[in-house]
Amino acid sequence: MKPIRLMAGFFTVGIWTLLSRLMGFVRDIMIASYLGTGPIAEAFLVAFSLPNLFRRFFAEGAFNMAFVPMFSKKVEADEGALKFAQDAFLGMTLILSAFTVIGVILMPLLVTAMASGFIGDSRFDLAVYYGRIAFPYILFISLSALLSGVLNATGRFMAAAAAPVFLNVIFIGFMLIAALVWGYSDAAPSSDENDLRLHFGNWLVYAVPVGGIVQLAIVWVAARRAGFPMRMGRPKLTPDLKRLALIAAPAALAGGVVQINLLVGRQVASYFDGAVAWLNYADRLYQLPLGVVGIAIGVVLLPDLSRRLRADDVAGGQDAFNRASELSLALTIPAAIALVVIPIPLVSVLFERGAFSEADTMATALAVTVYGLGLPAFVLQKTLQPLYFAREDTKRPFYFALAAMVLNFALAVGLSPAIGFIAAAIGTTLTGWAMVLMLWLGARNMGEAARFDGRFRKRLTRIILASLGMGGVLFLAEILLSPLFGAGSLRYLALAVLIAVGIVSYFGIGQLIGAFKLGEFKRAMRR
What we know:
This protein is mostly helical. It is 83% helix and 0% strand. The protein has one domain. The protein is globular. The two termini are 13 Å apart.
């Protein structure tokens, strides 16, 4: 895959991911308005996070990072790629079907592991009820991730990137139906407000498995059209699957460690009323640039590096790695600066309405600032990890993740008695940077393909300078626009102007000082 094709693949994934994240914002704005940060909102958010946690463990983490390089090599050599994909699909179906049944039965234990602070109040029973409805999503979304890996490895990115858009469309549709059926509005609280929110939450949780089925159907059809039809049958433990399991096992342990970090954060937050929701809404804000850039780069870079390593194309591998890192930082460093400089306008305009109060805005904005400081690290992990996975090296990332887990636990739990819920966000951010340092140091013995070239180092300095310049412009613009943020519907216009000022100033400064060339983005977009 040539650099321009790498960037084109990135933009294909990135644009669809951007649309999905924007629809996700609409979804979360509606959830914040209807449910706020109260017990029903926290119960739903914990229930929804359970299948997503295991999804990252089974599909996007361990399995897919092991599966994609092996599958890419089979596609490149034309050595039974279809049979390998079919066997992996059937094996995952069997394992996850059993896991789903066990998870539904043991849901009280899973909720305890996720949020033990819920024990003893209404949030616990409601989270268990919601969790049993939402948990089958793990089966559908994990199979979707496997089929997405098949599509991405063959250079077909659109269907896999577009499927999450439909999940959010279903969420929004269910919420609109619930609002219509129950006459719910974000007006002043009424005597039956909690009953309305409960009915609303009940409708919302059923959107989870329905959305998973729709996502699976989209990539299933796309894979069949691409020449990889998946059919049900009896799973067989082939030599390739045994090798896949051996490669995936360390990655599974690494994925489990990462999820333990998330569990630690949730546990800390569950002991502070409203904190689970505050961290969730803050997470949504920093996940927008992370999803659009980091995940898109990772999806495109891993199969590309795998093919280049098989062909012994060291120079091409180095160029792909450097251009991916350069592009990702060119888009996420300014996003990080923006999250640090203007978190309050972002949170207040997007979420503060209905059941979401001004106090919720301030707490969420604090978390946004802390997460913003870690955003470049979260993205760099997405470009550094493929260096290991493309070589089928999953052991060292596990050791790094284990060290990061210890650090995160010490920070989140140790600091929480003194500084409260924000300790969870601080632990996440500092652990992210520690993980980047370990991945970078560990890659030094991989040869030229894993080293930053002169162009990257030169442009990185200029990207940072352009981002800081943009931050100064945003700070002044926020002061000038501050009266509008308290002027009702004009606050939407004020935020739009503020974002536009940030975009124009960053790309203008970046072009002037040579941080990047706008023509590179235009060529990739056209392709």
